[in-house]
Design goal:
With 337 residues, the chain is mainly α. It has helices at residues 7-49, 53-62, 69-81, 85-92, 100-110, 125-128, 132-140, 144-157, 162-174, 179-193, 197-209, 213-226, 233-241, 245-255, 263-278, 282-289, 300-312, 316-325.
């Protein structure tokens, strides 16, 4: 026997379908607002890094309101970076029922973080790494002592926390710690999380500042291999390669004969191309760099070196045309211009 739907049943089903459609529409609208907010927030952060503080502040004020604690705190963070305290406090009033990490971010933005282990008291070791973002926020706000204290407490509790190591070492560097201290800390990080590109990049910067060119290049290559499309990786490699021509030449002789695959091969060819450019061998440089355009289409530094090679080879119009395509997108690109 098949049950027949009554008029009331059909009406009820129609109302349920309409309610579901209404909820789905509201959810899609909320997701769209969140995505739009994320894009605007990312652009505002870039503008701040590029020194365009007033433009960033105006863009932040235009971000649609969202009921998402993480996004609210992120917007407040960028307002804090441009010194807009009133806007920070206004944003924070919208945070509802913060979790442990969000509560710590609120303490950072409203006043001062508890020192070291006090900040993570009662937090299980497995959850400690989740608080490293707050230490990174303190670093972004140039509150280096607080960033160093919190990140060190976190990595002691959770030794595999990459972000905590990164933040601690960068904070120590900003606090003008001696090179000996920085190298000891980065070597400790390499032993624990040494397969991480970001740690290799920090190591490259530290060894560069201490005048150890070969080690700096080696670390920069490892950082680039991990993710060559990560902003700053190829730029960092090109930067350290220009420091010491003699060391660069010996390193080039070492890697040019080796066989690599994947990212390692791309980075090797990029390094060789840059090396030939620095040696004023522009035609040979182009042979290595031009094929990489298919891989690194949106990487400004590659376009810049290709343009410089073209300029030196007499193709000035082509060089100018290529440079127009190399747009500044992040703080890593500023020095190219």
């Amino acid at each position: 026997v098949v049950a027949r739907h009554t008029a009331d049943d059909l009406k009820h089903e129609k109302e349920e379908a309409q309610e579901r459609a209404k909820q789905e529409k509201a959810m899609r609208a909320q997701e769209a607002r969140l995505k739009a907010s994320e894009k605007m927030l990312a652009r505002a952060s870039q503008l701040i890094s590029l020194g365009e503080r007033e433009k960033a502040k105006k863009l932040l004020a235009m971000i649609p309101s969202v009921e998402n604690n993480g996004m609210i705190i992120s917007i407040a963070m960028q307002f804090a970076r441009v010194g807009a305290k009133r806007e920070v406090m206004k944003m924070l009033r919208n945070v509802k029922k913060p979790n442990v990490s969000e509560a710590l971010s609120l303490k950072l933005l409203r006043g001062k973080l508890p020192r070291g282990a006090k900040a993570i008291r009662g937090v299980p070791p497995k959850a400690a790494c989740g608080l490293a973002m707050v230490a990174a926020q303190a670093l972004d706000l140039k509150r280096y002592a607080e960033a160093e204290s919190l990140s060190q407490a976190i990595r002691k509790t959770s030794p595999g926390c990459v972000l905590a190591w990164e933040t601690e070492i960068r904070s120590l560097s900003e606090l003008k710690a001696p090179n000996k201290t920085l190298k000891a800390r980065v070597e400790a990080a390499l032993k624990v999380v040494g397969n991480t590109g970001s740690i290799h990049q920090i190591a490259s910067e530290i060894y560069r500042s201490s005048g150890e060119s070969l080690r700096s290049i080696e670390e920069a290559v490892l950082a680039a291999r991990a993710n060559p499309k990560e902003p700053g990786r190829l730029e960092g490699l090109a930067r350290v390669m220009s420091e010491d021509p003699a060391v660069l030449l010996s390193y080039l002789e070492k890697i040019i004969k080796q066989e690599f695959k994947g990212n390692a091969a791309f980075v090797r060819d990029f390094a060789i191309g840059i090396a030939y450019h620095l040696a004023h061998r522009y035609g040979e440089s182009q042979k290595y760099l031009l094929p990489l355009e298919r891989v690194f289409r949106s990487t400004p530094i590659l376009k810049v070196y290709l343009a410089l090679n073209e300029f030196n080879l007499g193709a000035k119009k082509q060089a100018a045309k290529r440079l127009k395509k190399a747009r500044v997108k992040t703080e890593h690109d500023i020095e190219l211009y």
